[in-house]
# Entry
Amino acid sequence: MIGSAYRALPIVPHPTLSLPMISKRTQVGIVGAGPAGLLLARLLHRHSIESVILENRSRDYIEQRVRAGVLEQGTVDLLIAAGVGERLQKEGLVHHGIELRFGGAGHRIDLTRLSGGKSITVYGQQEVVKDLIKARLAACGELVFEVESVTLHDIESSAPRILFRSNGEEVELYCDAIAGCDGFHGVCRPSIPAGAFSIFERAYPFAWLGILAQDPPTRDELIYAYHERGFALYSMRSPQVTRLYLQVTPDEDLAAWPDERIWQELHARLEADSAWSLREGPILERGVTGMRSFVVEPMQHGRLFLAGDAAHIVPPTGAKGMNLAIADVFVLSQALREFFGSGRADLLDAYSQTCLRRVWRAEHFSWWMTSMLHRFPEDAFQQKLQRSQLDYVVSSRAAATSLAENYVGLPLARRLQPAEEIDEATTQLRPLPSIKEVLWNSDIA
Ligand code: RFL
Ligand code: PHB
# Structure
C-alpha cells in the first residue's frame, strides 16, 4: 500500500507563521464537503483508503443549502452501492417521465419506456449531503468544518500539502493526493499555475429565480414550460414541498419580486390553457441563480485532481450538475484504489480524459435544453428554431429517445481498465489490448 494512515506528526514551529504548526498526514486530502467531496471520502473508505475532508462552512449551513433535486439512475445506483441509499430509497420520488409544455399544450416524454427501463429520482441535494455526513461520522472519518485560509502547496510533487486554520490552530496536512471538490468558487482550481489549463465557457442572457413553496405537489412529474414570457419549471422536493423556477434577467433584483408577482408569473407560464392549475403556498425560500457553462481542461495537475463544480459548471436546465460531480468522484475513487493498491498510476493519469468525455456530453445536453427552452431577447429566428425543435422532440421517437437517454443519465464511465498488466510468467508489464470505448447506448452496437 502506498501512503499511510492518518496520523498526527509532532508539532513544529512554522518558519513564517507565529503560531505553532500541527503537521498531519493522510492519503487523500479532500477540499470541500459537497456531494463530490463527501461521496469521494465514502468510496475511498470502502476501499480502506484514508482521507480528511476540509469544509469552510458549518455542518448546519451545508445541510440546509437548497440546490439540486434530480438524481440520475446511475447516481441512485451508486449511492445505494456505497451504503448511503437507505433514506433515498424510502423518501426519494421515482419519476418515469417529464412534461414539455409549449404552444398551450403539454407533451409527456416517457423517460422509462424510451430509455429501456431507467428512471430519475427526486431527492434534494441537501438530503444526499445529510446522508453522507451521517455515514462519514458513523465511520469515524475525519471531517473538519469551518476551516479557514486553505492553501495548497507542492501539488506537482509526490507529497502535496494543504495548509489551513482550524479552531485557532495552523495545520499542515501532508497527502499523497489532493481532491479539489470545493465547487466553482473554491481555492483548488486557482492553485493550478496559469498556462497549465484551458477554460471553455459560455454565459447566457438570463438567470433562474427559484422558490420552495410549502405546498404538496399537485402533479406527479416535472413540467418544463417554454412560454413567450420566458421559461418556467415545475418541480418538487417531497410530498409536502414544491420547487418552482422562472426565467428572469441575469441581474434580477429579488426585491422586485413580491410573492404575488412570482405566483402570477408562474400561473401565466405554467398553466397556459391547461385544465390543471398551480396551487399557491407559503414561500419558504427564494433565490436567483446565474446560468453558465464552464469546463477546465485538464481536470488534474500533478497530484491535484478537480471534481464536480470545481472543474465544470452546467446551466441547471438538464439537471446534470450534481450527477456529474458524482460521476467524477466515482472515476477518481477507482483510479485512487488502483494507485494505492498496486502503485499503478495509469488510471490516475487518465482521470481527466476519462471524465471529460462524459462531462462534454452533459455540457452539450444542458446547453441544448437551455437553448431550446428559454426565451432569448429579440431573436425571432431563434424562436422559430425552438418551436421546430420542440415539435420534433415530442413527435419523433428518435429525438425523444435522445432526450430521454441523456436525461436519465449515460453510463458513469468508460470501462476503467489499466493499459498494461503484469505477465505472471515473466513478471514483466505487458500492454493490454487497447481500451474499448463503451458506446453510450449499447443497443446500436
Ligand atoms: P458544491 O456542492 O458547491 O460543494 C463544494 C463545497 O466546497 C466548500 N468550499 C470550501 N471548503 C474548504 N475550503 C474552501 N476554500 C472552500 N471553498 C468552497 C463549499 O462550502 C461546499 O460545501 O460542489 P460539488 O460537490 O462539486 O457539487 C456540485 C453541485 O452542488 C451542483 O453541480 C448542483 O447543485 C447543480 N444543480 C443541479 N444539479 C443536478 O444534478 N440536478 C439538479 O436538479 C440541479 N439543480 C443545481 C440545480 C444548482 C443550482 N444552483 C443553486 C447553482 C438547481 C440550482 C438552482
Ligand atoms: C430542481 O428540482 O431543483 C430541478 C429540477 C430539474 C432541473 C433543475 C432543477 O432541470
